[in-house]
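sorry for the late reply, my laptop died twice this morning and i had to redo everyting from scratch. anyway the thing you sent over, i finally got around to it. pasting the sequence first so we're on the same page, its 236 residues, then the predicted structure underneath. double check i copied it right bc i was rushing
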Amino acid sequence: MTIDEAVLARHSVRRFTSMPLTKEQVEELQSRITRLNESFALHMQLVLNDDVAFSGRLAHYGSFRNVTNYIAVAGQKSVAGCEASLDERSGYAAADLVILAQMLGLNTCVVGLTFKKSSTIEIDDEEKLELVIAIGFGETQGIQHSMKPVTRIAPDYDSAPDWFKKGIDYVMLAPSALNQFKAKFTVDENGHVFAKSRFAPFAKVDLGIFKYFFELGSGKEIFRKSMQTLRSSDSV
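ok and here's the structure:
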């Protein structure tokens, strides 16, 4: 499965089978998590066979069932040398893992609220647990969420360049921590893209997700550098 195919095939899934992840899937996910943690100053963890995080009333309210595998997304609130907030970094990295999971034949759901912290998740001092990604073999492949008007995300969509439009088309297919689309993308006459979140819970997490999907669609790395931490090899 290609990245483009994964974007089109991905839908949020809340009910999973008891089939365990394969050794190869776990290794691929662990490898990507390690790289993303280093690049974006995060402390993401793949948690397997844990029946605590999605066992409470909130999970029941959210219609989750048989979620025993998930990725906990945590990190420090601010990091020297990085422009982006923890919210945006978390969303951006989570989006990458969601697409990887889809390419590996797995299903996911990005979850902002309807879970509870498990003792299995390691949170260091000065760190915050931002969200989790339920992951596994879904009972179904999910369905496409109801689409918002594209102009809600990009007011000038109709007059924008084709590459910008494709980026927004992919944003419209992106997951959301609370199933909301509180973001705005614009492009100026010089091709500079601006993205900002509106005021709402988890809106900045969603903005990070949307930036990742926009880059996939547009074919341009517009936001990635500002998301990453400054490595010593990059400094003068």
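Strands lie at 45-47, 70-76, 107-111, 127-136, 183-187, 193-197.
thats about all i looked at so far, will dig more tmrw
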